[in-house]
């Protein structure tokens, strides 16, 4: 049914927009396969510098290793599914686009909303760790003074918003450089750590105290699994941090020179790179003499702790700056992803359309990036004051991490469901690449994702953050139900979905 300036399709209505609407929302194609690889690896690499280590407190070293393997299997299933869907649906919407085609407007919106939580909160987590590293560096360089942590967060957002706004070419060049530098830093650490490691004494220095919590074993040589298999499962949410955001790569589809060829290559190569790096850091960081799993379980700067133990405090400032590179790489690339994710939902009318306007000169979604940054920074400030400011320590980072993982898990499950539905309902869709794992790989992703969510709920820090996620979901869903679904726009994702719905 159509009439006036709207077109009704089921429970949603599409508002008609002229050519100028899309001219104000243009993107520029620039990325090749190496840019895409760097975007995927760079988004994740900070998780090898900070965050993953909290898992030692719930699973010990063996629990962290096995949880990492399980989560790697989940991501392999997800990555192959995305590698098939992204060239078949080469739109900036990524997860929302996949789900929109498979499950309709409501399914697309809910999936996009879950992904939105991940990409708005993840930069906040990384900004927190950047603040932790900078605070540690500052305390060594200027022991008689300190900087209010939220100032580090604000400066971080400001600098990398600017880099992302001033052109796609600049953004991808920065991404490639900082990703390569991050991997170089990790390789230097691995080489340095090998002659300084004592695995049994330091990596296995966690036991279980009378209260059931982790306790330090002064002589090490503890169990690989001090908390048993339940500890492995409880560690799954922290292991996610070793790979979280590799799935953002398809958000660059409309800025890729050849998405149908390069998307599968970029995301699979990125996943293989991260698997190698994850194993090396989980093995070596806690094994360094003087560090240990127990210390890392509450550390905001685990890699810096490792460098300090190897080279001493005399070079702590330089080492801290070097260790910052990985966090910078991920923050820069996640800001990119956050902007494109908000942009795609806004361009299609799911979010207010003003958010998708691109810069007249640089053709970057600067409004979307500003909006996402303001929300992320606002959440950090609320957490800061609600949890006690300076006294909260790593708690703020842990709560934010749980929020990001919560949104990501739902997004992964819904993307895997979308893959299965597209295989079943759209068998004739043009698929330049087909997942070798097929439907079983997607099912495995769903199963591991559900188990991870169930164990995440048992984390005491989960409830401190999930309230804010639930509130955001509620506000967004009410907005879409009352306003958004009556103002959708025929963006490329929507046109593609409607066209294939008619063919099915």
Describe the structure.
There is one protein chain. The chain has one domain: Amino acid/polyamine transporter I, CATH 1.20.1740. With 504 residues, it is mainly alpha-helical. A hairpin with a 2-residue loop joins β2 and β3. The chain is 67% helix and 4% strand. The radius of gyration is 22 Å and the shape is globular. The protein is built from 17 helices and 6 strands. The model has no long low-confidence stretch (mean pLDDT 90).
Topology, element by element:
Layout: E1 2-3, E2 6-9, E3 12-15, H1 19-23, H2 33-45, H3 56-88, H4 95-141, H5 149-165, H6 168-193, H7 199-203, E4 206-208, E5 214-216, H8 228-239, H9 259-284, H10 293-296, H11 302-311, H12 316-347, H13 366-386, H14 395-425, H15 438-456, H16 460-482, E6 488-489, H17 492-503
Helix pairs in contact: 2-6, 2-9, 2-12, 3-8, 3-9, 3-14, 3-15, 4-5, 4-12, 4-13, 4-14, 4-16, 4-17, 5-12, 5-13, 6-9, 6-12, 8-15, 11-12, 12-13, 14-15, 14-16
Protein name: Amino acid ABC transporter permease
Pfam families: AA_permease_2
InterPro entries: AA/rel_permease1, APC_superfamily
């Amino acid at each position: 049914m159509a009439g006036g300036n709207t077109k009704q399709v089921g429970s949603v209505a599409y508002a008609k927009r002229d050519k100028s609407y899309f001219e104000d929302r243009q993107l520029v194609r620039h990325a090749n396969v190496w840019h895409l690889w760097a975007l995927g690896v760079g988004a994740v690499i900070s998780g090898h510098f900070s965050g993953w280590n909290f898992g030692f407190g719930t699973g010990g070293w063996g629990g962290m290793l096995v949880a990492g393997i399980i989560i790697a299997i989940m991501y392999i299933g997800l990555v192959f599914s995305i590698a098939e869907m992204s060239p078949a649906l080469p739109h900036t919407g990524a997860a929302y686009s996949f789900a929109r085609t498979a499950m309709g407007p409501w399914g697309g919106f809910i999936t996009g909303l879950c992904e939105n939580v991940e990409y708005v909160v993840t930069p906040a987590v990384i900004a927190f760790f950047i603040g932790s590293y900078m605070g540690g560096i500052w305390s060594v360089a200027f022991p008689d003074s300190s900087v209010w942590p939220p100032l580090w967060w604000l400066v971080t957002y400001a600098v990398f918003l600017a880099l992302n706004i001033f052109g796609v070419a600049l953004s991808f060049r920065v991404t490639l450089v900082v990703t390569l530098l991050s991997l170089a830093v990790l390789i230097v650490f691995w080489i340095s750590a090998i002659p300084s490691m004592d695995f049994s004494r330091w990596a296995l220095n966690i036991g279980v105290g009378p209260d059931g919590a982790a306790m330090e074993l002064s002589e090490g040589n503890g169990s690989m699994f001090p908390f048993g298999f339940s500890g492995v499962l409880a560690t799954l949410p922290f292991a996610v941090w070793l790979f979280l955001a590799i799935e953002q790569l398809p958000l660059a589809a409309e800025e890729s020179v050849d998405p149908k060829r390069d998307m599968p290559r970029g995301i699979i190569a990125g996943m293989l790179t991260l698997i190698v790096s994850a194993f090396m850091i989980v093995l070596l960081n806690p094994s360094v003499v003087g560090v240990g799993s127990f210390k890392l379980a509450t550390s905001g700067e685990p890699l810096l702790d490792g460098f300090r133990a190897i080279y001493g405090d005399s070079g702590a400032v330089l080492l801290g700056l070097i260790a910052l590179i990985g966090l910078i790489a991920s923050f820069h690339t996640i800001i990119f992803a956050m902007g494109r994710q908000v942009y795609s939902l806004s361009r299609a009318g799911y979010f207010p359309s003003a958010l998708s306007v691109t810069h007249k000169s640089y053709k970057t979604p600067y409004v979307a990036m500003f909006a996402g940054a303001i929300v992320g920074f606002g959440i950090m400030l609320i957490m800061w004051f609600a949890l006690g400011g300076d006294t909260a320590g790593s708690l703020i980072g842990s709560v934010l991490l749980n929020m990001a993982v919560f949104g990501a898990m739902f997004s992964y499950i819904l993307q895997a469901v979308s893959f299965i539905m597209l295989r079943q309902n759209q068998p004739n869709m043009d698929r330049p690449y087909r997942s070798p794992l097929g439907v079983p790989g997607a099912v495995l992703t769903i199963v591991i994702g559900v188990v991870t969510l169930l164990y995440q709920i048992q984390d005491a820090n989960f409830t401190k953050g999930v309230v804010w996620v639930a509130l955001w979901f509620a506000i967004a869903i009410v907005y879409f139900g009352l306003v958004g679904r009556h103002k959708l726009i025929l963006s490329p994702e929507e046109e593609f979905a409607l066209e294939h719905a008619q063919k099915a």
